[in-house]
Predict the 3D structure of the following.
Amino acid sequence: MANHGTGRLPKYRQIAAELRDAIQAGVYGPGDRLPGENELMAEHGVARMTARQALGVLQSEGVVEARKGAGVFVRSFRPVRRRGVQRLAEDVWGAGRSVWSADVESRDLVVDGVRVTEEAAPGPVAGVLGLEETETVCVRRRRFVLDGKTVMLSSSYLPAALVAGTAITTPDSGPGGTYARLAELGCKPVHFREEIRCRMPSAEEAERLQLSPGTPVIDICRTAFAESGRAVEVNEMTLDSASYALEYDFGA
Amino acid sequence: MANHGTGRLPKYRQIAAELRDAIQAGVYGPGDRLPGENELMAEHGVARMTARQALGVLQSEGVVEARKGAGVFVRSFRPVRRRGVQRLAEDVWGAGRSVWSADVESRDLVVDGVRVTEEAAPGPVAGVLGLEETETVCVRRRRFVLDGKTVMLSSSYLPAALVAGTAITTPDSGPGGTYARLAELGCKPVHFREEIRCRMPSAEEAERLQLSPGTPVIDICRTAFAESGRAVEVNEMTLDSASYALEYDFGA
DNA sequence: GAGTGGTCTAGACCACACC
DNA sequence: GTGTGGTCTAGACCACTCC
């Protein structure tokens, strides 16, 4: 019968809208448990799949989160502020501090799973770095964990020929990080470009970033340029959008 | 029976993975039609709801798009590049050109539905603009349409007392737009801050932006500062993430 | 008219969380 | 153990698209 009676909206959308409004109105706050499938079935006189669909709508909107065996709960958001410009200022990495430390002041951040490899450059990266087909790149893959949750995956690509024999090719790139090492090589990054996209994650990414359904990811692709105009690094990052707010400051 | 036999993944995820891989491998290109529910039922020997769930996974990943009565199709992406820094350079709006025109070179862009109102300032906006409870703001709401598709909704807030009697309070803000008018008022914007978030849209937003399921939105909140350090405008934008790639350039 | 996806029902078994 | 959400079946009627 699909759509008779009350209104033009399908039942499951009506139920979803009702719950969404209740959350908006503060009836259910962050962390609160919503009426479950059985309760919705009884209250609205619908079949289980219909109640389930309603909750599915809110889930794919990122409003609620289902926990198996426990219930459906209102999600809360505490994004970290990531300053795109100040965090890459030379006085940050020039002073021997980690670039990342400029982001998070007092929360428990861990960088783990650093893996450094030498590989053939992916097509687009090779193009930006100006590499020939035969040239390889040094890839530094990292995982960033904040308060126990994975919030970002990062892959940094540098011309292998340029960074050979430096600390860049080791997991610990030393004080000031990769950019300080590049400066010592006479390739000090002086200009950056960040390109931002937003999309839904693949199933694999959702697992790696521990994302609950309805959470998009942010792709940031940063290119670092030396004084000569040469691109010396390409860094591809994938961020949990529920964990981040990006900020860029600039003049007119 | 839920989960026996082949593997540990639920059937609908297996089917989804299979289709996803086929798309990745190019078996189905952008715009191509995927096997429908009936076909999946027959090929995999599953019930309709299971085949449906599989397609639902790909839909919520933004990979495919269902068209009622027609089929399920692979989506294609042609994002517009939005340069965050250059587009707000003074020589753009100072020369009497529209800020927006810096974004899109040769595609059919329309700004429509401009509505200008005077309202009480929303709490966060009032705080940034440094307004008292009793002070109102001039709100300029706009809709941006590219190649026939709505790609952005924008609400610009300015102190009503500051802009009273200027073209800012009319739908057509004149050559160079709002910023040129602010300059004439002695409040030339010299510094900008853009804050970016990403999330799934509400049902209402999805409709207004004509988003297919699985498409996140990008929120950009831009604050314009005058020489004095005073915030003179707050612009809240909501973008279709499938239509945009953001770009920011800056020095070390 | 035939085929498609959209909505909905009424059952079922399972794994997991909490008590 | 009881209740929760996760998966799955086997039907049904509808609105829509395309021929």
Summary: Residues 1-3, 36-38, 52, 55, 66-72 of chain B lie near DNA strand C (CB under 10 Å from a C1'). Confidence is low (pLDDT under 50) at residues 1-6 of chain B. The helical segments of chain B are 11-24, 37-44, 48-60, 90-93, 123-129, 160-163, 177-184, 203-208. Chain B has two domains: 11-74, 80-247.
